[in-house]
Amino acid sequence: xxxxxxQCDHGLFxxxxxxxxxxxxxxxxxxxxxxxxxxxxxLVLIYWLLFRGEKRGRITFVILIVTVIxxxxxxxxxxxxxIGRIRPSHAMPEMINLLVPRGGQFSFVSNHSANxxxxxxxxxxxxxxxxxxxxxxxxIIAFSRVYxxxxxxxxxxxxxxxxxxxxWMILSCWVIIKMKELKKGRGWVWxxx
Length: 193
Known about the structure:
With 193 residues, the protein is mainly alpha-helical. The protein is 73% helix and 0% strand. The protein has a single domain, classed as Vanadium-containing Chloroperoxidase, domain 1 (Up-down Bundle), CATH 1.20.144. Helix 4 packs antiparallel against helix 6 (111-126) and helix 6 (111-126) runs antiparallel to helix 7.
């Protein structure tokens, strides 16, 4: 059964990485998956949350930082070494359409996928109008990791689940803290107008 799932995962990887290959995606997917291209948009988001977003923005920023640190550390330092799945860019470099540098040795779970889905949950929770936009962006980034040849579909799928679940766990902790603080009459947690 596990071998069949791995074969399906490999087959889907080759379909996305090879059969769907086209000149537009060959330009767009490496651009969207490159972390350096997200520095300016992230700086704008941070500025907006801290200086324009009032109390809601500052609370969102802190919860985003906690979420990304947790997700990134657990995925990179615990899950990847424990599972030990070799990236397709390392396992079969001559058989794939590799559009970016090979990345680290291990691929399961995708940190890109986990972080972006975690980020989308937090932003969607505090800013419901952004929810579909940030979720769509998370899906595109996750897909790009397979397209450029550095992750299998299962890596990004389970990375998305891990990021999604972790973000909701952290939000649940936030809600518990918020309720306790409100019961004590402390208003620092209240951001509604």
